[in-house]
Amino acid sequence: MKSFGYLLTALALGGSLPLSAQGVNELVIQTNKPGAAIPSTLYGHFFEDINFGADGGLYAELIKNRSFEFAQPLMGWEAFGHITVKDDGPFERCPHYVRMEYPGHDEKRTGLENGGFFGIGLKKDATYRFSVWARGEGQKIRVQLIDKYTHGSSQVIATQDVKLDQADWKKYEVTFTSPVTIEKAHLRIFLKSKGTVDLEHISLFPTDTWKGRENGLRKDLVQALVDTKPGIFRFPGGCIVEGTDLATRYNWKNSVGPVENRPTNENRWHYTFEHHFFPDYFQSYGMGFFELFQLAEDMGAEPLPIVNCGLSCQYQNHDEKAHVPVDQLDGYIQDALDLIEFANGEVTTTWGKLRADMGHPEPFHLKYIGVGNEQWGPEYPARLEQFVTAIRKAHPGVKIVGSSGPNSEGKDFDYLWPEMKRLKVDLVDEHFYRPETWFLQSGNRYDNYDRKGPKVFAGEYACHGKGKGWNHFEAALLEAAFLTGVERNADVVEMATYAPLLAHVDGWQWRPDLIWFDNLRSVRSCSWYVQSLYGHNKGTRVLPLTMDKKAVAGNEGQNGLFASAVWDEPSQSYIVKVVNTSAEAQPLVLTFQGLKKNVTLAEGTVTTFHSDNLDAENTLDAPFSIVPQEAAIQAEGGVLTTEIGEKTFAIYKFVKK
Ligand code: AHR
User: Fold this and answer.
1) Sign of the dihedral defined by the CA atoms of residues 385, 386, 389, 391, in that order
2) Of all atoms in ligand 1, which is nearest to the CA of residue 406?
3) Is 315:269 a contact under the CB 8 Å cutoff?
4) Are 537 and 606 in contact (CB under 8 A)?
5) Is 290 in a helix, a strand, or coil?
6) CA 615, 619, 622, 624: dihedral to nearest 10 degrees?
7) Are strands 573-580 and 561-568 parallel, antiparallel or unpaired?
8) Within 10 Å of residue 449's Cβ, how many Cβ atoms?
9) Which residue owns the Cα nearest ligand 1 atom 7?
10) Alpha-carbon span 389 to 393, nearest angstrom
11) Distance (Å, rounded) from C-alpha 525 to C-alpha 517?
12) Helix axis angle, 379-394 relative to 411-423, nearest 10°?
């Protein structure tokens, strides 16, 4: 750290005073007056299958359209020879399969090739499990991993033959070890005998998934989620909860049970760009509600599923007929009640039994449920009310999350908040994708919120820079500034999640995003580091804080400074977060008041997050360009005199001794 001495030197030399000299920036932290308890759920993740975040992303399946259930059954595949698509397969909700027939000459071939999601990523020496449901007694298929591009013409990376030994459907498996690392391999399967073979649910997974699960998740991406220490995990969206229309809403019941029999659903996000190849974005539901609950559990986060409230996406449907009539909501309400049973019910109940059959007899301990995504207008409370009544009756302990619409303020927001109070929901979901100026001006957003009403779930937020990069450092810095206000108001804000979470560099529809990836690599954005710094330094109680004897204003900061302070019981430490949004370094004095006589605060640490270039961002090629740095600091008599650099997020931590 630079020293505070420069200010004294400047004064001694009669130099002009920096802005900071308008106040000494003395932060007084009241250690003996702990305020609100900080909810364990305060920081977490919002997950949606957007930007190929699920299939092609977090879900480790490498084959696109593995069950031939896309609207065009051979989408994602190239077929050659005698291939026909049939629809009387062994899985009733995924009826399609392909028939391969001998092409009539040994030198000719019948087969299929799959290009994965923007290619199939393979890592040298890693193993991959190929599996297929097939029938064709005495027949043989050859399975190859192909490098189509590196050498000008296709090269075989690895080959395995599979002998089929029964006339009826059976699952076959072989494993490959890849001798190379390649980002965009293909899978090729062809008939090596003279008869007929039927193939269904053709799958390829790395064996090294998160926790080694067969129907598993991509390890590096889960690790990036876990590493922020999330306390809440919202799924499955976002707009896909609503669907393009009701027929394509996310139906959680289709996402559970054996993976082979989970019906494919169109992804609402494949309509985003006219110039994108269309229609090729579907949800296999391979990572369905069971896997999402399991992921929440793995992360130590509370699960927060969102269910459809009988409204299709209001951006895309302007006719009342596109929605479920208010007197016909029973099936949707039952879906919500059944979901709670799936998560929490005894194994003797219908849905609790399914959870147990899927390998999790213990409940998932669901405590929250969201009804509706980003709804607005009177049509929303008219529907939500019925859900609230039914859920309260059947599950009085489950907290209900309602929506305040798509905007952080304005007509819909002003209408819905009172409605949410009237309906007595427990939390209200607020969404704000806003520019830098908004974040700069919103550090005190929650200071005057009603303490007696529903709590806040800042469910989707991100700083959207104007005319700059997308995941650039300054956006993350302003998110950090905004979060000081969330933390100071932890009595009213119960949870906050950045959105969206994941994006494939070759297939995004929305940016910025928290984590970017290609088929082999992933990168944690500057915003990820901010989330992570908050997650790891959340604390357990808010501590009162003043700056130059005034309440921390938050709005545009004081001298551009934003701050919050917490006590963390498990680590017995005081943690102060300061964000300097100004373009000048600022002197800082942190005074820890009210310490008991036998308590000393001496050695501590400061973690700083800064980039000289505000427009810079972490990339796949340079993932660690902008990362936090830790250094030792020394307080004297409960006072730390220091300086915070310009455009810097700093976390000062002292363990009580
Ligand atoms: O996060 C992207 C989208 O933004 C979500 O799906 C939706 O809820 C919001 O409009």
Assistant:
1) negative
2) 10
3) no
4) no
5) helix
6) 80
7) antiparallel
8) 17
9) 238
10) 6
11) 11
12) 30
Regarding beta strands 82-86 and 77-80, do their DSSP bridges make them parallel or antiparallel, or are they unpaired?
unpaired
Distance CA 515, CA 623 (A): 11
- Say what the pLDDT of residue 276 is: 76
Q: How many residues does the chain have?
A: 657
Instruction: List alpha helices for 301-357, DSSP H.
Output: 330-344, 350-357
Averaged pLDDT, 231-243? 97
Supply the residue whose CA is at minimum distance from atom 6 of ligand 1.
Answer: 238
pTM here? 0.95
pLDDT confidence band for 274 (50 / 70 / 90): confident
Q: Is 6 left (phi over 0), alpha (psi -120 to 50) or beta?
A: alpha
- Structure confidence at residue 272 (pLDDT): 81
Question: Which of 440-449, 460-469, 506-515 has the lowest average pLDDT?
Answer: 460-469
pLDDT at 578 over 50: yes
Q: Which of 315, 314, 307, 331 is nearest to 237 (CA)?
A: 307
**pLDDT tens digits along 70-120:** 999 999 999 999 999 999 999 999 999 999 999 999 999 999 999 999 999
Q: What number does the ligand 1 atom closest to the CA of 241 have?
A: 6
Q: Phi and psi of 643, rounded to 5°?
A: -145, 140
Mean pLDDT, the chain, integer: 94
CA-based Rg of the chain, rounded to a whole angstrom? Answer: 27
pLDDT above 80: residue 159 = yes
Residues flanking ligand 1, CB < 6 Å: 48, 50, 237-239, 373-374, 406, 431, 460, 499-500, 510
CA of 431 to the centre of ligand 1 (A): 8
Give me the mean pLDDT over the 177-191 stretch. Answer: 97
Local confidence band at 9 (pLDDT 50, 70, 90 cut-offs): very low
Residue holding tokens 């006072």? 639
- CA–centroid distance, 238 to ligand 1, in Å, is 5
For the stretch 403-423, pLDDT in tens is 999 999 999 999 999 999 999
Ligand 1 atom at minimal distance to the Cα of residue 315: 10
| DSSP for residue 260 | G
Residue 467 has a pLDDT of 62
Distances (CA, A) of 156 to 76, 115, 187, 386: 20, 14, 10, 59
Q: Are 195 and 12 in contact (CB under 8 A)?
A: no
- Pocket test of ligand 1: the residue of 46, 404, 460, 513 to mutate, having most ligand atoms within 8 Å of its CB, is 460
Distance from the CA of 252 to the center of ligand 1, in angstroms? Answer: 19
Amino acid at 82: H
Q: 652 pairs with which residues across the strands? A: 576, 606
Structure tokens that stand for 267 in this block: 């992804």
At residue 183's C-alpha, the angle toward residues 179 and 184, to 5°, is 100
pLDDT at 20 over 90: no
Residue whose Cα lies nearest atom 1 of ligand 1: it is 500
User: What tens digit of pLDDT does each residue of 509-532 get?
Assistant: 999 999 999 999 999 999 999 999
Q: Which residue has the tokens 């796949």?
A: 620
